[in-house]
Design a protein that fits this description.
mainly alpha; 6 helices; elongated
Length: 147
């Protein structure tokens, strides 16, 4: 069971990330990553897990928005070659709508990540690629085998 101090630190990570996003949007993704390494250094697994999960959510949203943007780029080329114009794709509004949905998803998940650590419960993320959780799990397994 995590202490109240760990719960508060885990709650502050998304809050600080949102505040940094308002001032410097490109550096906001670094907050959970640096929080993860700091929490690992002080051996606070609860804070490190939440920081890693939040970083995974942000990276997942960024990857999904990038893939949809790439898909729209391919559709613009395909419709331009075929001389067919689709208004949603040609105007670039599909990318804008996807980016806004990704930003909304990140904001909602930030609020959820502010509430769940206070309750001390485990959080299952609905839309996440879990890239970094899988990599961390493999690293733990490799350490367990070599020790």
């Amino acid at each position: 069971m995590a202490s109240w101090l760990e719960r508060i630190f885990a709650t502050l990570i998304p809050l600080v990330c949102l505040l940094v996003y308002l001032a410097l949007p490109y550096y906001a993704i670094l907050i959970p990553l640096t929080s993860y390494f700091i929490a690992k250094q002080y051996s606070s697994d609860f804070v490190a897990d939440y920081a890693l999960k939040f970083f995974d959510v942000l990276v997942s949203a960024l990857v999904i928005v990038s893939l949809v943007g790439l898909l729209e780029f391919a559709l613009v080329i395909a419709t331009g070659d075929g001389q067919h114009l689709l208004p949603v794709i040609s105007a670039g509004s599909l990318t804008m709508i996807t980016a806004m949905l990704g930003l909304l998803y990140s904001f909602v998940m930030s609020i959820i990540f502010m509430l769940f650590p206070l309750m001390g419960s485990e959080l299952k993320i609905p839309v996440s690629l879990r890239i970094f959780e899988i990599l961390r799990g493999r690293r733990k397994n490799v350490r367990g085998i070599t020790s």
